[in-house]
């Protein structure tokens, strides 16, 4: 079990206050890591870090800002002396404020350019910048693990039929930008793994499937029917995979995409 220990390691999770971000933080803390809860919400990050225990801190981090990331890097190094694990979790997944307009705005023909650019900035540029700022510290030190969170929709195209209700009405479309950005994350992982392999920095992708989170019952059932295990994921279903990628249990693994999706992409 020592292979799964992260004792004395420092781990950063971006987008840490999201549904999965919190579970990522809890998993890393349980494995012994010092966790940096990085999110735009300063007070929320500090409060959540305090709840994890005394060895953890919360920091305000905007992944689209090099200055914000650099300030965070310096604070982390001053506190812990090293950066060992980076979980690039921050991302935008479309939510439309007006449900009545969701179908119209999410359709490819109408999808807003501003929304497309905003997601590109967070989901791709944010991963690039965070990896550059924190990963360079790892490369200089000669070791580290970067875990980029992608999605099954970075591997296969969205099945728009799962967004149809019991009467066959299309309630929503999975928009183009999320699959585009998550596909980019998967290939950025390969680039960075090849680039920093000789520096001892491992870079892998974790591609989760959909998580049950109080969605409409018809959607939960539609999604479950697409998986081999017959259900959506629970938020805790990715914790073991994350700890595996973070530590020595995956010491000979880099440039890989670990797909944890209940069998969605298997057939």
Automatic annotation (TrEMBL):
Name the UniProt record assigns to this protein: NAD(P)-dependent dehydrogenase (Short-subunit alcohol dehydrogenase family)
Record keyword RNA-binding present: no
Family: Belongs to the short-chain dehydrogenases/reductases (SDR) family.
Record keyword Amino-acid biosynthesis present: no
Gene3D superfamilies (alphabetical): NAD(P)-binding Rossmann-like Domain (3.40.50.720)
A Pfam short name: adh_short_C2
GO molecular function: oxidoreductase activity, acting on the CH-OH group of donors, NAD or NADP as acceptor
Originating species: Mucilaginibacter frigoritolerans
Keywords of this entry: Oxidoreductase
InterPro entries assigned: NAD(P)-bd_dom_sf (IPR036291), Sc_DH/Rdtase_CS (IPR020904), SDR_fam (IPR002347)
């Amino acid at each position: 079990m020592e292979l799964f220990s992260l004792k004395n390691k420092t781990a950063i999770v971006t987008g840490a206050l999201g549904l999965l971000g919190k579970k990522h933080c809890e998993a890393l803390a349980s494995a012994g890591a010092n966790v940096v809860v990085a999110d735009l919400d300063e007070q929320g990050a500090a409060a959540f870090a305090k709840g994890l225990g005394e060895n953890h801190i919360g920091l305000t981090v905007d992944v689209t800002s090099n200055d914000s990331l650099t300030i965070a890097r310096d604070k982390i190094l001053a506190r812990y002396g090293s950066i060992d694990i980076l979980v690039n979790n921050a991302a935008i997944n479309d939510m439309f404020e007006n449900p009545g307009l969701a179908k119209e705005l999410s359709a490819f023909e109408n999808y807003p350019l501003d929304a497309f650019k905003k997601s590109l900035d967070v989901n791709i540029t944010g991963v690039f910048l965070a990896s550059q700022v924190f990963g360079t510290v790892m490369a200089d030190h000669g070791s580290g693990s970067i875990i980029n969170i992608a999605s099954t929709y970075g591997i296969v195209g969205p099945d728009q039929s799962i967004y149809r209700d019991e009467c066959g009405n299309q309630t929503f479309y999975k928009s183009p930008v999320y699959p585009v950005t998550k596909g980019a994350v998967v290939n950025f992982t390969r680039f960075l793994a090849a680039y920093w392999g000789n520096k001892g920095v491992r870079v892998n992708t974790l591609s989760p499937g959909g998580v049950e989170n109080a969605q409409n019952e018809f959607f939960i059932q539609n999604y479950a029917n697409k998986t081999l295990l017959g259900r959506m994921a629970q938020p805790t279903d990715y914790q073991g995979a994350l700890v595996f990628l973070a530590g020595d249990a995956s010491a000979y693994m880099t440039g890989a995409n670990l797909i944890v999706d209940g069998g969605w992409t298997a057939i």
